[in-house]
Amino acid sequence: MGKNNKQFVEKITAMEDDFAQWYTDVVKQAELVDYGSVRGTMIIKPYGFGIWENIRDELDKRFKETGHSNVYFPLFIPESMLQKEKDHIEGFAPEVAWVTHGGEEELAERICVRPTSEVLFGEYYSKNIHSYRDLPKLYNQWSNVVRWEKTTRPFLRSLEFLWQEGHTAHATREDAEEETARMLQIYADVAEDYLAIPVLHGKKTESEKFAGANYTLTIESLMHDGKALQSGTSHYFGTGFAEAFDINYLDENGDQKPIHQTSWGMSTRIMGALIMVHGDNRGLVIPPRIAPTQAMIVPVAQHKEGVLDKAYDLRDRLQDLVRVDIDGSDKKPGWKFNEYEMKGIPVRIEMGPKDIENDQVVLVRRDTGEKEFVPLTELEERLPALLEEVQQNLYDKALEHRNEATTTAVDMDAFKKALEENPGFIKAMWCGDAGCEEKIKDETSATSRCIPFEQEKISDSCVYCGREAKEMVYWARAY
Ligand SMILES: [Zn+2]
Question: Which parts of the sequence belong to the Aminoacyl-transfer RNA synthetases class-II family profile domain (predicted)?
């Protein structure tokens, strides 16, 4: 590697030295975002938005396949409407942004900028659901929401972020609970199959559930630094909102019944997971299935006659097969290598005079740095196969890291030792008392991440109080 290449790489902090700084450096250097003018807001740049668009398209396809329709509801919520569901408002009030003036005039009633839209959908459903024939309602919206966070970081916690929020209404508890589980599975599938992020599936404890929900299902992933990230949630509301908003329907027998609701969301926070699960000290690593550009052609010695033409021919030849791009600019090849490594483009295709002479190209994988010479006649077969190998390797590596960073603890000494020596998930038994959960959080800053669907019996007693254990819980420090 030449001198100039080295300088470029040195612009990012090593993750072992300062993980938070590494994250900030990558987000900036890979040209994902810029900071907005208001503290805590972000400008998502073309490359960052391209990745988000691919995630969005994968999710949207699955939502439609399962019968959902996209809608759009307003950004504004009257204060009186937000007050209708007590638990919900208590949960969100501290981070709501309020509109108090319209032009110069003070408003008679404050208007909230949506932090989430349950109440808007509740109000709408109360007016539009009358009979069992109106059910189910399977709506989703792609939108922005605003939460006035105190400390912010791009993607992980920002004042305004993008997401989708599904809001559904059902005749029975059974239908709504099925929907809640179905949507969690969709999030898990997209995370694992497309983002190459292995996830734990489970239920949130009472203190960690969504404000106003009966229960919250979650997928949780593990970052390089051993912290967890909640990566998608699906909530079952029971009839809570139906009671607050008076949403009833007449069943087949003419009896009046309350509806059962769900909501579910995945946001641009998942971009943070993508960065922190796969990235390395050379920058981003984007899984091929989600990468806006899967292969980047970099001509070598392009000033030599015929090289650039051949490289463009190669681009034309591959573009129906994979998402391919070419950098024919006059920047030095070494500079280009570094730039596309920083952006995490899965495969680089090098082509120089010698390769042209030998009817071959050089393929370089971003995840391992391995190079291979491939005859042009075999490229159509080899390139897609290589992309799949990269995809699989990223998933396997992430799963291996999670397994290595998962410890079991039967008492608090083991719990604290695990957090210090091998930060990651801790499997430990819990008595079900919120008091124990609170004390664990106070003493270790680890929170309960989920009560996994796949339970194991590690011991008979609660890791904190020693009383009889009810469930195994995954604990971790989290973003
Ligand atoms: Zn306990």
Answer: 39-287
Cα(411) to ligand 1 centroid in Å equals: 11
Contacts of 368 (CB under 8 A, 6+ apart): 393
Helix (H, G, I), strand (E, B) or coil at 282: coil
Task: Please say whether the beta carbons of 321 and 382 come within 8 A.
Answer: no
Phi, psi of 59 (to 5 degrees): -65, -45
> Distance from the CA of 416 to the center of ligand 1, in angstroms?
16
Distance 439 CA to ligand 1 centre (A): 9
- Three-state DSSP at 205 gives coil
Is the CB of residue 467 less than 8 Å from the CB of residue 431? yes
Q: How far is the CA of 462 from the centre of ligand 1 (A)?
A: 5
DSSP 3-state assignment of 162? strand
**Same-domain pairing of 186 and 297:** no
Residue 393 lies in a domain: no
CATH code of the domain covering residue 464? 3.30.110.30
Domain count, the chain: 3
Say if residue 472 is in the same domain as residue 363.
no
pTM, whole model, 2 decimals? 0.95
Distance 401 CA to ligand 1 centre (A): 29
Q: What are phi and psi of 198, to 5 degrees?
A: -70, 140
Distance of CA 202 from the midpoint of ligand 1 (Å): 20
Exposed / middle / buried, residue 259 (Cβ in 10 Å: 0-12, 13-18, 19+): buried
Q: How far is ligand 1, taken at its centre, from the CA of residue 459, in Å? A: 13
Q: Can you give the CATH number for the domain in which 328 is found?
A: 3.40.50.800
Whole-number mean pLDDT of the chain?
Answer: 95
Instruction: Say yes or no to pLDDT of 4 above 70.
Output: no
3 pLDDT above the threshold of 90:
no
| Residues measured by CB to lie within 5 Å of ligand 1, the ion | 431, 433, 436, 462, 464-465
Residues 264 and 299 grouped into a single domain: no
Give the pLDDT confidence of 304-342 residue by residue, as tens digits.
999 999 999 999 999 999 999 999 999 999 999 999 999
Measured in angstroms, how far is the CA atom of residue 89 from the centroid of ligand 1? Answer: 29
Q: Same domain for 298 and 269?
A: no
